[in-house]
Amino acid sequence: MSVQRESMHGMWSGRLAFILAATGSAVGLGNIWKFPYIAGENGGGAFVLLYLFCIALIGIPIMMSEVMLGRRGRQNPINTMRTLALEENARPSWHWLGWMGVIAGILILSYYSVIAGWALSYFKDAVFGTFDGISAETAGSHFGGLVGSWWVLLLWHTLFMMMTMFVVSKGVRGGLERAVTLLMPALLVLLLIMVGYAMKSGAFAQGMSFLFDADFSKLSPESALTAMGHAFFTLSLGMGAIMVYGSYLPEKVSISKAVISIALADTAVALLAGMAIFPIVFANGLEPGSGPGLIFTTLPIAFGQMPFGVIFASLFFLLLIFAAWSSAISLVEPAVAWLIEKTHISRLRASVLMGLLTWFIGIGTVFSFNIWAEAKVSGKTFFDWMDYLTANVMLPFGGVLIAIFAAWVMRKESSSDELKMGAMGYSLWRFLTRYLAIICVLIVMMKVTGLLDLVLAKAGL
């Protein structure tokens, strides 16, 4: 029953390379920028436990499904879904799932690059000691000055896109694998250095208590939905990245073991980020639930007051750049792979064309913070709509469709042949993917789109 296909783009050298690459895709701004502040907003420890529960029972089964589809098809997500639909005697319209992932990756990178540009700018500022002794008022005005200048944002957005496309243009082993082999260990070392400093901050015990002591009274239904949504987003599911990375996975590598390793590494980075950030926040009397500004307007104040603040601020924003860079290359890879397979042009040319398209779309996000700041549709700017459309609609919907195809449309013989798990492990994956994962993600989608509230209201609940 085994299907032998080969990717025209090359293969990872082995299991470790795939784990580093997929972990690099998963570990991004969401772990280091977003996870600490949403944990802070939702009470700390109880939210962390809920998040871990969602990773284990929802994220891992869907990630296994996406890797399985990628390795089975050995092509870009569009052609993979077209090939597998034909193989499983399903409707050819399943190839639109591949299109949705490819488009989602481009749209996410278009605004992700702008946010990563903030990290580049702050790294430069940190190196030159801009945050030394900075006050809260000055930190706020500094950030406002950055996002308020469209040409400065465009400059950093352009630089980050050039960094990303340079790596992608080098291919699977020469670019993607070599980059993550350097970036991921460096990211881990930087995180451990930051945690080491946090241990000496004087508020490490308070930070750990906040992060790991579970007070379930602080949880709300919104907290559960936030945990599910973040668990889904942080593993890079539904955007084509994991599917195309799976297409480069050697046949001998166990999908289940690799995915569990990736989920553990991704979660460890998120927890280490919290361990590094919260003690610094508490030691300086700052607010852990201060929202998205925690890193760009709050932490510079802390770095400005601490001994060797210039060094630690530089290390932290370098860490943020590495995390963003490793994720960015995975977001555009599905589109580049599709263009190469479709037109047979060189990887360099395909990378330049997709990079230019993504860069151009990102100009809308650049303008959203300044000259288009008042141009809103239903209260949302261009950036707000890009974020909402991808994170709340395209990724969850893509994840549901991946789970449906893998566990309902695909024959048991096909999925078991590709997963190569024992009977008990395969049955557990099939149950979680068929029922729990699909139901939970649909609930999240209904909530964020307002359908759940409407249904509950109609039911009198």
Describe the 3D structure:
With 461 residues, this protein is an all-alpha fold. The protein has one domain (15-458): Orthogonal Bundle (Hydantoin permease). Helices cover 77% and strands 0% of the residues. The protein has 19 helices and no strands. The protein has helices at 15-26, 29-41, 45-73, 77-87, 95-127, 136-148, 150-169, 172-199, 204-212, 221-234, 241-246, 255-283, 293-305, 309-343, 347-368, 382-409, 412-419, 423-448, 451-458. Helix 2 packs across helix 14 (309-343). The longest helix has 35 residues, at 309-343. The chain is globular. The mean pLDDT is 89.
Integer-rounded radius of gyration: 22 Å
CATH fold-level label: Hydantoin permease
Distance between the termini: 50 Å
How do the helices and strands follow one another from N- to C-terminus? HHHHHHHHHHHHHHHHHHH
User: How many beta strands in the DSSP annotation?
Assistant: 0
CATH class value: Mainly Alpha
Poorly predicted sequence stretches spanning 5 or more consecutive residues: none
**CATH architecture heading:** Orthogonal Bundle
Content-based structural category:
mainly alpha
Q: In percent terms, what proportion of residues is strand? A: under 5%
**Percent helix range:** over 70%
Number of domains: 1
Helix count? 19
How much is the average pLDDT? 89
Summarize it.
This protein is an all-alpha fold.
Keywords:
461 residues, mainly alpha, Hydantoin permease, transmembrane, symporter activity, transmembrane helix, membrane
What's the layout of helices and strands?
Blueprint lengths: L14 H12 L2 H13 L3 H29 L3 H11 L7 H33 L8 H13 L1 H20 L2 H28 L4 H9 L8 H14 L6 H6 L8 H29 L9 H13 L3 H35 L3 H22 L13 H28 L2 H8 L3 H26 L2 H8 L3
Helix pairs in contact: 1-8, 1-12, 1-14, 2-10, 2-12, 2-14, 3-4, 3-9, 3-10, 3-12, 3-16, 3-18, 4-5, 5-7, 5-14, 5-15, 5-16, 6-13, 7-8, 7-14, 7-15, 8-12, 8-14, 9-12, 13-14, 14-15, 15-16, 16-18
Protein name: Transporter
Family: Belongs to the sodium:neurotransmitter symporter (SNF) (TC 2.A.22) family.
InterPro entries: Na/ntran_symport, SNS_sf, YocR/YhdH-like
